[in-house]
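User: Predict TetR family transcriptional regulator's structure from this.
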Amino acid sequence: MSGAERRDQVLGIAAVEFANHGLHGASVEAVARAAGITQAYVFRLFGTKKALFLELVGAAFDRFSDGMSQAAEGAAGLDALAMMGARYYESLADRTTLLLQLQGFAACGDGEVRDLVRSRLARMWDTVAGGTGVDPVTVKSFLAFGMLLNNVAALDVDEVAQPWATGVRTRIRPGLFEHITTDTNQ
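Assistant:
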């Protein structure tokens, strides 16, 4: 296996480990064992456990932003926003990427993690704002709803047969938030 292939293998294994256990709960030893290499080799590839985590979390955010950007290519306004929303929703099916994003938020007590997550959230904002041309209140509403979708997906709400879960799964009709995008709310 080439060095690049080994690195990709370790990233894939580590993504699942960090998604499930977070920065402080993940075990580099478990990653190394699953990859059939030593811990020392993992550290040689990535430097530190935190550096590996940061790379994975950054990539998870980038997959969401890149996907939305690609989905809305050539469109503008609410049409672009709808395309981005559909892609975002589809992206939630990648549970590892979703959980890595949430683990990034959870580890924001660490300054380096917070700086990375802040920069990736800024990129996500810029992707939506720049790719649609909509006003800041609409971008904020879109991203806020996205965060709700993240939590709902992480909780596997589709598996819950209770009234609150049915309510959370309710589809939102276009135009529902029209009242918050007026000049008075900007």
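The chain has a mean pLDDT of 92.
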